[in-house]
Each structure stands twice: as structure tokens, then as C-alpha cells.
Amino acid sequence: MNFELTDEQRLLQDSVQRFARDHYDFSAWRARTGRGVGFDRGLWKQMADLGWLSLTAPEEDGGLGGSPVDTMVIMEGVGRALMLEPFVASTVFAPTLLPRLAGSERTELIAAAMAGTAVVTLADAEPDGRFDLAAVSTRAERTAAGFRLTGEKSHALDGAEADWFVVPARTSGEGAEEAGITLFLVARDAPGLAVHAIRAMDHRRNASLSLDGVEVSAGAVIGEVGQGFGLARHAVDLAIVARLAEAVGAMEAAYEQTLQHLKTRKQFGQAIGSFQALQHRAVDMAIACEEARSMTYLATIAVSSSDPARRQTIAAAKARVGQTSLYVARQAVQLHGGMGFSDELAIGHYLKRLVMIDLAFGNAAEHRRQFAAARAA
Amino acid sequence: MNFELTDEQRLLQDSVQRFARDHYDFSAWRARTGRGVGFDRGLWKQMADLGWLSLTAPEEDGGLGGSPVDTMVIMEGVGRALMLEPFVASTVFAPTLLPRLAGSERTELIAAAMAGTAVVTLADAEPDGRFDLAAVSTRAERTAAGFRLTGEKSHALDGAEADWFVVPARTSGEGAEEAGITLFLVARDAPGLAVHAIRAMDHRRNASLSLDGVEVSAGAVIGEVGQGFGLARHAVDLAIVARLAEAVGAMEAAYEQTLQHLKTRKQFGQAIGSFQALQHRAVDMAIACEEARSMTYLATIAVSSSDPARRQTIAAAKARVGQTSLYVARQAVQLHGGMGFSDELAIGHYLKRLVMIDLAFGNAAEHRRQFAAARAA
Amino acid sequence: MLFDRTLMDLDLDPADRAFRDEVRAFFTENTPDAFKARVRAGMRLEPHEFVAWQKLLHARGWGAPSWPKEYGGTGWTPTQLYIFESEASLADAPVQYHQGLELIGPIIFTFGNAEQKARYLPRILSSDDWWCQGYSEPNAGSDLASLSTRAVRDGDCYVVDGQKMWTSYAQVANRMFCLVRTDPEGRKQAGISLLLLDIDMPGVSIRPIITMDEIHHTNEVFLDNVRVPAANLIGEEGQGWGYGKVLLDRERGVTAATTMRLRQQLRGARAAAAQARTSQGALLDDPVTADRLAQLEIEVIALEGMVMRTMAEAASGKDSGPRASMIKVRWSELLQEVTEFWVETMGYDAAAFGPIGNGAPTEPWPMMGMLYSRVTSIYGGANEIQRNIIARRALGL
Amino acid sequence: MLFDRTLMDLDLDPADRAFRDEVRAFFTENTPDAFKARVRAGMRLEPHEFVAWQKLLHARGWGAPSWPKEYGGTGWTPTQLYIFESEASLADAPVQYHQGLELIGPIIFTFGNAEQKARYLPRILSSDDWWCQGYSEPNAGSDLASLSTRAVRDGDCYVVDGQKMWTSYAQVANRMFCLVRTDPEGRKQAGISLLLLDIDMPGVSIRPIITMDEIHHTNEVFLDNVRVPAANLIGEEGQGWGYGKVLLDRERGVTAATTMRLRQQLRGARAAAAQARTSQGALLDDPVTADRLAQLEIEVIALEGMVMRTMAEAASGKDSGPRASMIKVRWSELLQEVTEFWVETMGYDAAAFGPIGNGAPTEPWPMMGMLYSRVTSIYGGANEIQRNIIARRALGL
Fold first, then answer.
1. Chain A: residue nearest C292 by CA?
2. For residue C224, what is the domain's CATH number?
3. Catalytic residue from among C87, C137, C251, C344
4. D72 and D92 housed in the same domain
5. Is C337 at the interface with chain A, CB within 8 A?
6. Number of domains observed in the structure of chain B
7. How high is the ipTM of this complex?
8. Are C306 and B293 in contact (CB under 8 A)?
9. Is C389 in the same domain as C279?
10. Chain B partners of A280 at a C-beta cutoff of 8 Å?
């Protein structure tokens, strides 16, 4: 039973915190989002130079072969500073999926992902499938040179910034069958691909996709033909766990700022933190933070284990972190009063980020359903 | 829009309150339940003499033809004083069901019910049907003289005190079909009927029934053969609404005693009601009481209307009163501390009564389901 | 079905039934389609739309449903008011903007002098004046009695200096009612007066505050040596705290009418759930989703019951005690839960808030409504303050 | 599946895995069937059963899992303790009675003198002594510092007068540890001492308190001129408040182990839901029921994660801050919700509490467990007090 970070992880944690302090305080964040800037290529290059984007890439491809716990350390800092860069794409999707690319661009692409010059994300959902990863009706027809892809994808995290998309499409089967799904790597500028970039309430820039007869080569296949579901499932589970750490960072920051506010804001002649009802609320927020952190640890340990309860633990964690983090963020707004509702404090932005974290890859209700289904299976 | 009682109803309310003060204070209640006495025939006779048991019987049978609002007035007092007598049987089931009895005992039986010398209740459920009133697998076979009944009934409110049971049994159809259910009046001492009397946690004495070839005459039919479901549904709806008023009486009493406790109990040198967290809890209890009372009014008005949303309103009220009353009772125990948990204060007994009121005829979860089903229909 | 009709059918008399039909026809014919999606999500209209709506109602004689006839109101009974609000809700019609109509208007007709009544009331009804509220200050939010904006008498003027905060729609208003401290000595609540300002008076300046929903609803207002004619004083000098409290109570009362609009948000959420697809079919057919929606609908019915009782008691002249505060608390909580549920039903559609760049959002009403709902448990006295008030005034704690 | 194994599989080392197998075998072989239904519902054993269970564990060398070896404990690591409690939970084995073992025992080996250690500790392990706790008084519940039982020194004795309340199992205990006021002057917390009494000392009398679950767990204890040898004083006179606080912290720590038992209640509820019939089939197959159970299971996993972190921190010598209080709060809330859910699943079976007349209940464990759960948020410092403690000690409010 060990929940301690290693010395290397502590150094990484310090590095992320220092970077956030130097480059990512809230006024800088606000100035960037106010100018409509999402992804800052200059900062992104610095992050790559710090090695963050190589951390979880395989050693044989020049990466550091890091674990989900390493990703957790970075993502907590990302959540805390509300960072806007495509970390999940680069530290989860790229290193998990690119090594399975059939074609020869694999080495070059992994290098580009680590250098921050290529962003690769996964299009995980379709309009009629809600959050069901297996609900793939995008079709992949065989052609002489490879495959032709046609269909709609409702979500690709950070898709507006992506240079490449991993697109699940059906080479056989139908409906929500897990078998028959194949993953394809599609370049952003591929003819027939329309990328509908959109800004979310948290200023992250995602995308939905329309594929209208997009031609890809046989080398664009990731993993085995018809066997893509397991790979996508694993990539999404790793992404979920990374997002949980981001949620923990964001909710703890919102909680800490609220605690500070309770100690300094005066009403009726005393610090509002002296009012018992608000004290108890703060305690419930603190408990929620403890629950979320504990759940995130369990899921982070589980995701790379062979435990048969692995998916249950991840679903449980996604559900509970969603609930507790939204509780904390909503109460943080409430306890800040009018200022909590303004755009000028970070508090409201934490709430918005946490709403979007809860949404991505299935919200708390969806994961409670997945948990119950896995229980019954 | 009128939620005012009439002058007559106000007099009735006074009468119930006076009776409770004179005969039913908590120490008297505790002495009775301590002796294992449920139904006190002496008190019951007095209640009959006060006219309470005639209030809702039809005028043509010597009753006063009162409305569900009259029952509400009595039941609030019943809830407040935790009365143990079979009011729902006598002010709802008897006057609703006996007038439809085929046989000639009708007049005599109604008179006995009004006089308090006969208690008639409804066996509303079966072991495999949970709370589904239509889930009747008890069989009624035709015989030369009438019918022969065989089956199990899991619940008859106040059944331990009953002299007569109204038993739904299937003359045709199957499963949970509404058609084909017939209601029969069965005497407690009928050969083949076993009455399993049981004490509930609220010291009310209910029963489950086993019918092993119970012979009844054709005159034992209530309403039409095969058409019993609607009658049972209406009787149960009236019973639900009566129980909601009982819940309101009980929860308001628990709330008021808690408010009093907050004002008088001292800790850390001050009345505990001066602590803001407890003040806010008391406010939430007060809001819960307001919600429950409002819902009970809506359902009491709806139950005798022809509003197509009638069943929705009743289901909504049963669900919400269950939730709010249990919230209030649990918080009442909590705010009383250790004494709230003892058997020596009324507080814990209010909780137990309210648990049983929530249970009877389907709990909050069941009625939310019924509400949703009625919404979708 | 319950949510598609009014509860009042339970016992409407024929006159009320006729009134209902009249109101229903009006709303059906006159509610602009452009308002509906926005209103349904619990968002407010744009200011020019508020003005147009008020002028429409005024033309129909319904400009001030809650005012006495004497001042141009309808003189309706509580039952009629309830019907009016229910039908507005059913038609996705907007609420009227309340700061002139429900807040300062009644203060003027109750405490103002004849000249003030003649000057201001008709222009509220016709929506020619837009009033904003100068109450809160940076250090006087829920603790209003701590306000520090000062008004010093100088000849036939007060000279006002200070800063107001959370002044909704100051950017479109031409008038402002303002609590100021006319006597710096004595108890905090004493020495406060209520003054009427014109926004174009020299020394008034406005800084926008953008809120979480990315809308410019509200502002800081700086008052720098503003000379306000003494004739603009409401009632007596130093009595402003009392008027202010009446007004805050009224603000809570406004919530009772707004509560009737929760059905709009429920309808929106239900429609979204019916539209949302899962790999098993419509999301609304998922029993767990239907159950959660049922719970919200049930809680809304309970709250509507409280509103009905409050209106009935008002009709028979009884004081409903703390129920207005209770309704405010429950309404805001439910608005939040219903709009959260609505956004959840949307799945990944809820990720679409606005275009890339720094352009304005593309009218993502449910998400904006969900975000906006957070402030409803803060404004007009945060829910924590409402609970304090109930505990003290009604529970005697 | 998660709930049928221990979470610890995630990273147990081989030695711990072997230990787990050993413990599992022990519980499987030794847990009496008669205990299981009762334990599963969250109810305590009968006193004679507690004694038998303690003797069994003691014979196996596991009489004091949390004590150091020096005093007859196991000296286990936190991981071993966690395994022990998880496996006990899995086998529906009971907890050990804690007032001797977890409360006064550690106080004696920490603050007691050599003679006290020799006299009392072995008899706690062997269950030859049953200790009860004389802390609360009628006017000193959560506000323990207000206690008024007095002990006046008279020669080599203290003469004790007063009244204790909520003294669990005084009716079967032969010893009692008691907070008394030895110095009536000065601050409330000062002048309190910790004394050990024998229940059969003249002047001790007991009045039963029957609780909501219709069980005789607890009592009032009247102390009338009880002469207690001065040798029975623990540590120093006037320092009892400090010892008492250590003890209350430990009492909260006991909850961490008890938390592992929530899986028992979840299993009971799940089995009840699988057994309950509806006209559509098993209740557990109803998606809404399954969803509600899933929510409870998820919350229990989160709480177990908190317990695991607390134990791991204890192993590395770190202070877990307020987490023990947090676990106590969440455990009691969840125990209540799970047992309420369980009783709900039973439908009309939950109406069967006892026979007609004034006989004892017929072992309606789930209903009794649900009722009993209400006191878990009251005893050992009500949850409101826990929140005060967390706010003050950990949040600095």
C-alpha cells in the first residue's frame, strides 16, 4: 500500500509548479483567453523541451517510458493552472496509439509528438452513440490502396489543435458491436475530412468531424484491422485517469482559494469563515477533495493493472470525481458570492473546466451505469 | 384557489386535538405500547361516539358523507399523536368499499364500522408483486355457492385488528393485468384463512394472509366481478392521501419538538439553536414541512377530482412527502443527540411511523416510478 | 398531463377559466419565436427585447400585473396573477423586467410624493424609463447595512460619492435608485436614505462586469461628486433602510412568479432528453434518466404548491411568513438542478459554447442558462442569508 | 468483482498475499453462522458472543490487532491491519468490542503505571474484563468539558458522586473508566481526571436506556458516594482531559476499521434486492434500483480509498490530519443510506418487526440495523461536532 511519489516524480511536480508560476498565472490565462488564444505554440515548445511530452512515450521510440502516475503528476498541475494545451492528446493518445501504427511514419510521428510539432487526438464518439465507444457507424470500405472512410464523429478532445486524428471506423459488424472496429490515422488536411472546430465553455478547443470518403492507405491502420476497440478502450481509460488528475488539481485549487476567501472576506464585522454554516460547507468541500484524490489514486493504480475489476474502478472514479468536483466548484462559486459569478476570478473558470471534464468520455451518470453493468457482468 | 378549512372542519380539528391532549399524550402512548396494547377498544368506542368513524360513510347509510379533506383533518391529528387505531381501515376502506358489497349485510356492516365494532381493511399486495396493486395471483374459482379463494397476501394495513378483509382475487386474466380482478369480503374467522399478525416498528399491527380454499358466497363480491381493480385503486388512492396527512401531522410534530429542543438545550454555554449550522438545518426542516403540506393539499384536492393528472399528482405527493418527512424525522433524531435515539422520547417513534408511512402502498422510489410512467402514458 | 396544463384546473371557477383562455390566447399570439429558446433555458431577454415586451403588455393593459389599478396596474386577484404567470410559462413567454416594475415602482407609489408618482410611474409602465438598482457595494454585498456611499446635503442638492457594485443593466438604464448614507454617525442601519439618480448626471461612470455566462448583465457604477436634486429623495431622509427592506422582501416575492417558469426549463430538459440518442435509443427512454427527470418534476410540483398556498393566503389577507424566502431558496436550487440535468442530457453537444477565437458565443442557451443559474442562489440575498432570515424571523432562533 | 475481493490485490506483495490467505482461512473456518445475518446488517453481537469471539481471536494470537507486541498485540503493519479488516468483512465476521481494546487499553499502556498495565491489559486481551466508558453526562454530551461528576480525595480514595449517561453495556461490564472533576475551580477543561472503577463498588447503580432499535445497549450510571482507590487514577490528577482527547481521537480511528464493514451492508442490500420480486422480475434487475445501489457502492469505494491512504500514511509515520474525522462522518452517512436502501428493497417484509404483544423483536436485523445506524452520526462526537473539529484543526477556520 503505497501512495507516495518517487523522487523523480517530485522533481517533475516541482517543475510543473514552477512553470505554472512563471508562465501561467491567472492574469496571463485571462489575457490569452481574452485574445482568443487557445494553444500557445511557444509555451508548448517549452513544455516539450522540459520533457513533459516525452514522458510516457515508449523508450524504444526515444521516450521515457513513464507510467500513468507520471501523467497524473503533470495533469494535476494542468488542472490547477487551467492550462489550455492539448496534454491528453500528447501524453496519452499519441504515446498509446502511434506505436501501433502500421505504416512507416510511426517513428517520425512519435518524434514530432514528443517535440510538440504534431498533435494527435482520438475521435471517441459519434452523434447517435452518446458516450458509447463501441457505437461506431462510420464505415471503412476497402479500396485498392487502403480504405475509404465515411461518417460523423461528435467529439475529439482538443481536436481544434490537432494535426492528426485517430478515427475508429467499422470494417465489419454493426451497431455497438466491439468487434469489427478499426482505428485509422487521418491527417487534418486529408481530402474529404471537415474539422468543425469549436470553443467549449472552458476555452478548450475541441472538434467534431465529418468524413466524406476520406482515402487512407493501409499503413494508416493502428493496431489490427477489426481489433481497434480494445486499443481505443485502453487509450480512453488512460485519458479518463489523466483527466481525473486534472480535475483533482482544479478542484483543490478552487477549494484552497475559497478557504482563503473565507478567511479574508469580512461581512457583518467578521471574517465570513467564522460563520458555522460556511465552516461546515468548507469541511464538506475538503471531504469531497479527499474522496476525489483517493479515487484518482485507485484508478491510476488500476488502469495499468491486470485486475479484473479494473474497468469498475475506473468507472467508479470517473463517476465520483465528477460528482465531488462539481460539488466543490459550485460551492466555491457560491461562497465567493457575486465575485464568484464574475469572469474576472478563476473560480468560475474552474467550474466550467470541471463541467467539461465531467462531460468528456462520459459523465458521472454514464459511468455509474458502466459501473453497474460491469458489476452485473 | 382555496386551502382554507370550513368552520365544521375547524371544529373537527379542535375535537381531535382535544382528544389527543386528554387521552393520547406521549406517556400514555408509551405505557400502552409498553404493555403491548395496540388497538384500545375503549378509546375506539369514544372515537366512534365522537362521529369520526361516520364522517366519510355515505349519507344513505347513516354516515355524514364527508370528503377527503375531512379525513385529512383527522389524520393530521392521528399523525401528531402517533395514534394506534385503525383509522384508514375505518375512514377510508370501509366507507369506500362496503357500499359496493353485493350481499345484504351491507347496511349492517357499515353501521358496525361506523360504531367501531367492525374493522374492515384491504389486503393490497402479494409477495411477488411488491407494491403493484394489479399483481394479483390469488385465484377465485367459481363454486356452486360462490367462490373459492386461494393465494397469499403480503400486507393488510392494521390487519391484526381487522374483523373483515377485502381480498382482491383473480376471476380471469393473469400476471399484472388490471382486468379480471374481483374484490371479495372475507371474514377473519373464515375457514381456510390464516391471518399472520405482526407488529411493525411503529407499533402498528398489520397482517399478511394465507388463503387456502376459503369459501365465500356470491354476496361477498364487492363491485362487479372482474372489475375490482378500479375500486381497489380508488380505495388505495384515498388511503394514500389519508396517510399523507398523517405524515404531515407526524413530521410537523417532530419538527416542532426539535425547534423547542434547539431553543432550550444548552451546550458550550449557549442554546444549541444559536449555532448557525443547526439553524440552517432547522430551516431546511421547515421548508420540508411546507413542501409536504403543500403536496398533501394538492393530492387531497386531486383525489376526488376528475383531473386526468389525478394519479400523477397523488404519486408525486406520495413520493415527495415520503422524502421530506423522512428527512425531517432523521434530522429531528440527529438534532436531539443521544436522547433522540432513545425509546423514551417521541422523536424516534415519529421516525419509525414515517418509515412505515413511506412504505405502505409503495415508497417514494415506487411512486416516482409511477409518476414517470403516468407522465409517459 | 400535469406539466402541459395548469394545476389550477383543479378548482378554477368559470370566470377564472375565461380569464385563463383570454391570457392563453394573448401569449400564444404574441410571444415572439425568437424569445422562446432563450427564455426556456432560464436566460433573460436582451434589453431591447425587454422594452418591446413591456410595451406590448402595456398596450394590452397588462403592463403592471401586480400593481393596484389606481397607478395603472391590473388590480388582479392572486388567482389571476397565478393564471397569468402559469400561462406565460406555458407559452415560453418571458418575464417582465422587474427592477422598475416590481422594485422601485411599488416603493414610489407607497412612499413617494405626488410629483414623484406622476413623473416616474407612467414611464415605468410604458418602459420609457429603465431603472437600475444601486444597492450592493464592494464591501457591502449580503451585509447591505455596511454600505459606505455618502450623500452630503449641499443647498438643494445631495452630493453623492461612492461606488456601487452588481448594478444590473446600468449600461442601458437611464435611472438608478440608490441607497446612500446621509448620516455617517450612529448605527449602521440608521442614516441611510433612498435617492433617485439620472444615469446621465455628471460624475456617474460605469465599468462592465462580464459574468461566467459570458454576458454583460452587470456593472460597477462609480459616483464621483454627483449632484442629485434633494427632490429626488424618496420618503424621509435616514429612513432608506426601511424602504430597502420592503424592497428586498418584494424582490423575493418576484421569485414566486418566476417559480412558475421552472416548467419551461423542465420542458426544455425533457425535449433535450427525448432528442438525445444513445446506442440503446432515446435517452429519455432510459429508466434512470426518466427517473431523475421525474424527481425534478415532482420537486417542482411541490414548490408550485407552496406558491399556490402563498397566493391564496395573500388573497385572504394572511401573511405567509417566511414562505417567500423559502420559495426563493428552493427555486434557485431547482433551477440549478434542472439546467444541469438539461446540459447533461446534451452529451457532447454541450461542448459547443462558441466559435474559435474571441467571438461571442453562438447562443448556447442551455449551457448559458446552467451557468447563469449559479447566480440565482447569490443575488437578492444569498441562500445562506435567506436561511438566516428564516431562522431569525420565523423560527425564532 | 471488486466487492467480492479486496482492493489490496492491486499491489499486495507475496508476504501480504500469504498473510491474506491465512486470515481468510481463519475467518472462513471460525465465523459462527449465527453471527452473520446480524453482523451483515451492521448490528452488534450479543455481549456473550463478543466475549466468545474475543477469546477465539486471543487464542489465535490475534486478540489485539492494533497493539504493539510488547503488550500482547500483533504488531501488524497497517497493510496487515487493512487485510485483516477486509477479510473479516468478506467473511461477515464481527468486529471486536472496542471499549477495552481500542479505548482504555491504549490509554493504559501509554499513560498507566506498571502495576495498572500488569493488572488490566491481559484481562482485556482475554476478555475476562468488560470495560465500559463513563464519559457523557446528561448535561455534557457533545460538550464533554461541561461534565460535573465530582471526585473528592479522601485519604487513599477518591469519593465519586455524579451521573453518567450513554454508558454502553454497563449492564454486563465489570469495569468502567470514568472522567471526573477533581478540581472544581478553574477552566472547564482543567481539573478533570481519569479514574478506573469496578462496577461492583458500593454506590454504583445502573438504569437501562432502551433505544430506538428496541435493544438494551446503553445505560445511565449513577455514582453515589463511590469510594475509588487513588491507585486507580490514570496518569496525573487534573490531566484527564488530555487523555480523554487522545481516546476520542482513537475512537474515531476505530471507524476506519469499521468502514471496511460497509461492504457487508452492501452485500446484504444487494442480496435483498436480488431476492425481492416485482411484477417485472427481480428488483435488482430494475435499472433505477441497480443505479442507486451502484451509487452507494461507488461512494463506499471512495471512502475505502481514504482509509487505505490513511493506513499507508500511518505506515510511513505521517499524520493524516483530519481524515479520521472525515471518515467517521462519511462512514456514518453511508451506513445510514445503505441500510435505508436495504430496508426499502424489502418492501412489505420490512413491516415485520416483532410479534404481537410486548415480546422482543424476531431478529429483524436489517430494520434494526437501519435504526441503529442513526446513532452512528451522534456517538463519539456528533457529525456536527466532527465538522467543527475539522474546520478548526485542519482548515484553520
1. A365
2. 2.40.110.10
3. C251
4. yes
5. no
6. 3
7. 0.96
8. no
9. yes
10. 277
Looking at the fold, whether A128 and A34 belong to one and the same domain comes out as: no
Task: Give alpha helix (H) positions in chain D.
Answer: 14-30, 33-40, 47-59, 78-90, 98, 105-111, 114-125, 240-259, 262-275, 287-315, 323-345, 365-376, 383-389
Final residue in a domain of this structure, among A203, A226, A249: A226
pLDDT (tens digit per residue) in A11-23: 999 999 999 999 9
| CATH number for A219 | 2.40.110.10
pLDDT at res. A53: 96
Cβ–Cβ contact C292 with D under 8 A: no
Does position C4 have pLDDT exceeding 50, yes or no? no
> Does the annotation mark C251 as catalytic?
yes
Are residues C288 and D288, on separate chains, in Cβ contact within 8 Å?
A: yes
pLDDT at C6 over 50: no
Contact flag A342-C211 (C-beta cutoff 8 Å): yes
Q: Find where cell 510516457 sits.
A: A56
Mutate to test the interface with A, among C168, C286, C348 (most CBs of A within 10 A): C348
Domain range for C381 is: 246-394
Same domain, C51 and C167: no
Interface of C with B in 276-315 (CB under 8 A): 287, 290-291, 293-295, 297-299, 301-303, 305-306, 308-309, 311-313, 315
Tell me the pLDDT band of D2, cut-offs 50, 70 and 90. Answer: very low
In the predicted model, what is the mean pLDDT of chain A? 95
Collapse the DSSP code of D197 into the 3-class scheme (helix H, G, I; strand E, B; otherwise coil) and give the result.
strand
Nearest by CB to residue A160, choosing from C278, C356, C375, is C356
User: In the structure grid, which three cell numbers stand for residue B134, read together?
Assistant: 394489479
Domain for residue B1, yes or no? no
- Residue of chain D whose alpha carbon sits nearest to that of A305: D10
Average pLDDT, chain C: 90
Phi, psi dihedrals of residue C9, rounded to the nearest 5°: -50, -25
Domain boundary among B71, B93, B115: B115
pLDDT of residue C314: 76
Give pLDDT, residue D98: 87
CATH number at residue D388: 1.20.140.10
Within a domain: A66: yes
B324 part of a folded domain: yes
In a domain, C193, yes or no: yes
Q: Which of C70, C96, C122 is the last residue of a domain?
A: C96
- The predicted model scores a pTM of 0.96
Question: Is there a single domain that holds both residue A267 and residue A198?
Answer: no
Mutate to test the interface with A, among B270, B280, B283, B331 (most CBs of A within 10 A): B280
Site of grid cell 455596511: C146
pLDDT of D371 higher than 80 = yes
**Same domain membership, residue C223 and residue C313:** no
Cα dist from A80 to A24, A199, A205, A300, B280, whole Å: 10, 20, 18, 18, 32
DSSP classification of residue D354: B
D391/A259 CB distance under 8 A: no
φ, ψ dihedrals at B337, nearest 5°? 65, -150
Asked which of C239, C268, C299 is the last residue of a domain, the reply is: C239
Residues of chain C neighbouring B303 (CB-CB closer than 8 A):
none
Sign (positive or negative) of CA dihedral D231, D236, D239, D242: negative
From CA C271, how far away is CA C275, in angstroms rounded? 6
Residue A51 lies in a domain: yes
**Structural domain that includes position B137:** 120-226
**D220: in domain:** yes
Cβ neighbours of B279 in A, within 8 Å: 277
Q: Identify whether C8 is part of a domain.
A: no
Q: How far apart are CA C181 and CA C165, in angstroms?
A: 16
User: Computed from CA positions of residues C113, C115, C117, C119, in that sequence, does the dihedral angle turn out positive or negative?
Assistant: negative
